[in-house]
Specification:
By secondary structure, the chain is of the alpha/beta class. The chain is 33% helix and 33% strand.
């Protein structure tokens, strides 16, 4: 078993169904937690997938997510939210609409027209490439889950290479047992931490 998969497997065994820490309104966190499904051995054996689909199906929960993120992010300092394909798109566009800001997609290779800035990186289960159109302005990078941090770090790097000023990084769920990622020497903003 690959080291990262081993770590993910240990995390699965240690934290199934248990919340270690959260930095949101406790009542809202409890409601969100009740709507996160845990799927064992997906997408590979030994991985515990945190499925946020039930949250995405509920207008009330989406509103809660937007309101909780808006309390924690420097909304007045940014022009747009960058969403990482694919669930990050949903959260970033939700926040963009809620906060009156723009949305910038960060896509998998081959999905955007040129000109492009590309970044390849290692995943928990292989390699991947992200792409975005160059631009300018201040942004917050958003994704659904922070596991080992490879995708999120690649997203920050590509945003900076593409000309954007990254003001903050945020995720719905941070699997803290799998990463020690920080942004500007601060913990990554999240609504839920396992």
């Amino acid at each position: 078993m690959h080291k990262t998969q081993e770590k993910l497997f240990r995390h699965k065994k240690q934290s199934t169904g248990s919340l270690l820490f959260c930095n949101s309104n406790p009542m809202n966190t409890k409601i969100l937690l009740q709507n996160i499904r845990e799927i064992a051995d997906f997408p590979q054996p030994g991985i515990l997938f945190r499925d946020i689909s039930p949250i995405l199906r509920s207008p009330e929960l989406l509103k809660t997510v937007a309101e909780e993120f808006a309390k924690k992010l420097p909304i007045d300092q940014i022009d747009a939210f960058v969403g990482i394909e694919s669930r990050g798109f949903i959260l970033a566009s939700l926040l963009a609409s809620h906060c009156g800001k723009g949305f910038i997609p960060l896509r998998k290779a081959g999905k955007l027209p040129p000109p492009l800035v590309s970044k390849s990186y290692s995943l928990e289960y292989g390699k991947a490439t992200l792409e975005m159109n160059p631009g300018k302005g201040s942004v917050v990078v958003i994704d659904d889950v922070l596991a080992t941090g490879g995708t999120l770090q690649a997203a920050v790097d590509i945003c900076q290479e593409a000309g954007y000023d990254v003001k903050q990084v945020a995720v719905l769920i941070n699997l803290t047992a799998l990463n020690k990622m920080t942004f500007q020497n601060e913990k990554i903003i999240s609504l839920i931490e396992y």
